[in-house]
Design a protein that fits this description.
six-stranded mixed sheet, SH3 type barrels, about 500 residues, five-stranded antiparallel sheet, flat, 7 helices, alpha+beta, binds zinc ion
């Protein structure tokens, strides 16, 4: 039973479950008769047979099996070795804008493929390649194919983030009140969690700040700390005018399509000061949404204690290179998220004095044994493999920690998972697993799955810098507790 569960868990882990967000690869059948089955294996029901040269797209994979949709809309699984990539696929990299009111985005390059999304006039699409007249396109939210005759090339380079934007700050208190005025006598509008980024509109003992959702209020400057970063604004409607001044009486400088990103330079009442390729100007705030990004690791209320001097930590960012891991419903690649988290975790551990060994620091593919060797060769005290999860049911969400075979792995897992469980997402518990990276390591080893890329809410959190920072801190605090507990201090 235990073994069956372990095998099932390993299967869940190694299987890349995908949704319509998968960048479907156009392929053709390479044998005379290919069975289309209801699942990834010989034991699944045969739904039909596909003839040689049948056009299809690969939308998912499980081991040697490929989940496919044919150009006539049939869907199922086939044995992958009987497919070859469509030789007409050419890769390019450019941007186009949608020219019609509504443009179907299909799963594959042909009108027989199902529609997976609809792009709207003015929307900007990144072109990854083409199959004849069909462009393989991508945005943050969709991937698929569109007809090239309904789009035009975009020549305008995206606006460079402006150097002299509004300063950003991070909340250092565990909870910070945002008030309607400059003092505690004013009502609380909302509360912010530690690590949340705000834009400082007017600095002061009570700083006027704007939140990412556009809310403006006042916070005590004692509980925020400046961080490097950039505030951007995204145009949410079509044909939005940027004017020379904060009012409709000012001349129009340029008109932005929906999705255009400009840098945020402050507010004048309902108007937002922006900087775009056309220069500095003003856009009505109700047409914009905001995004704050900081490359910095979370600032802590307490100064960093260098209490991990002498400890060695091996960090493994799961997947990489030709293996992206799970693909998020929002297009995020698991391998990228894992690496981002791993690099930030390294910084926190190094700040505390630990010696850190990384299995990878860039987008490369490693074998599982190469990953384990990093822990063993450097005599690491702990091995932490960072992953994020996926499930075929998009409603499945939450955080999970797997631990290796040794009792100390369990204690390490407990320490980290206790912190991950405070992130405000579902607690899916701790599990033992026979993943090779856990089984073959002789040092305390865990594998974390912070959240589900296949779940819309979780995937949005994994795209949010402040959540990533909190998740990284959870890892750090857990590792720290385990190491300090073991050192007997
Ligand atoms: Zn993974």
């Amino acid at each position: 039973m235990q073994k069956r569960i372990a095998i099932w868990l390993a299967f869940m882990m190694l299987t890349v479950f995908v949704s319509s967000a998968w960048a479907a690869t156009p392929s053709v059948v390479n044998v005379n008769q290919l069975n289309l089955r209801s699942g990834p294996g010989q034991s699944f029901r045969v739904l039909g047979t596909l003839a040689r040269n049948t056009e299809l797209v690969v939308v998912g994979l499980s081991g040697d099996w490929r989940q496919v949709v044919t150009s006539t809309g049939n869907a199922g699984w086939v044995f992958g070795q009987h497919l070859v990539e469509d030789s007409r696929l050419a890769t390019t990299a450019r941007a186009v804008a949608v020219d019609v009111a509504r443009l179907n985005v299909r799963q594959g390059p042909g009108t027989g493929y199902p529609v997976v999304a609809v792009a709207e006039r003015g929307q900007s699409l990144r072109v990854m390649g083409n199959v004849g007249e069909w462009l393989k396109v991508q945005t943050a939210l969709l991937q698929g194919y569109v007809r090239s005759d309904f789009v035009t090339e975009e020549n305008t380079a995206p606006a460079k983030p402006h150097a002299t934007g509004v300063p950003l700050a991070r909340v250092t208190a565990s909870i910070l009140n945002v008030r309607a005025g400059t003092g505690t006598q004013f009502p609380v509008i909302t509360q912010l969690a530690q690590g949340t980024l705000v834009a400082i509109l007017t600095p002061g003992a009570w700083s006027q700040v704007m939140l990412e959702n556009g809310t403006i209020g006042f916070v005590s400057e004692d509980y925020i700390a400046r961080v490097a970063g950039a505030a951007t604004a995204r145009v949410d409607a079509n044909a939005v005018n940027q004017r020379r001044g904060p009012g409709t009486s000012f001349p129009v400088m340029t008109t932005h399509p929906a999705g255009q990103v400009v840098s945020f330079g402050g507010r004048e009442g309902d108007w937002v000061r922006v900087s775009s390729a056309a220069g500095e100007g003003f856009i009505l705030g109700s047409f914009l949404s905001f995004g704050f990004l900081s490359p910095e690791v979370p600032t802590r209320a307490e100064p960093v204690k260098r209490d991990l001097v002498g400890f060695k930590v091996a960090i493994d960012a799961g997947h990489g290179g030709s293996d992206p891991g799970a693909i998020g419903v929002n297009g995020l690649r698991e391998s990228d998220v894992n690496l981002r988290m791993a690099l930030k975790l390294r910084t926190l551990l190094q700040d505390a004095g630990a010696e850190v060994f990384m299995t990878r620091t860039s987008d490369v593919r490693l074998t599982l044994d190469e990953r384990i060797a990093v822990a063993h060769d450097n005599r690491a005290d702990v091995f932490v493999s960072i992953h994020n999860n996926a499930h075929p049911l998009t409603e499945v969400s939450g955080t999970k920690t797997f631990f290796g075979i040794t009792p100390s792995s369990f204690r390490l897992g407990q320490a980290v998972h206790r912190h991950l469980a405070t992130l405000g997402i579902e607690d899916r518990g701790m599990h033992s697993a026979n993943f090779r990276v856990l089984q073959a390591t002789t040092v305390p080893a865990i594998l974390t799955e912070t959240a589900f890329l296949s779940n819309h809410r979780d995937a949005a959190l994994l795209a949010d810098e402040s959540f990533i920072n909190r998740a990284v801190e959870a890892h750090f605090e857990g590792i720290r507790e385990f190491l300090r507990g073991r050192s007997g201090l």
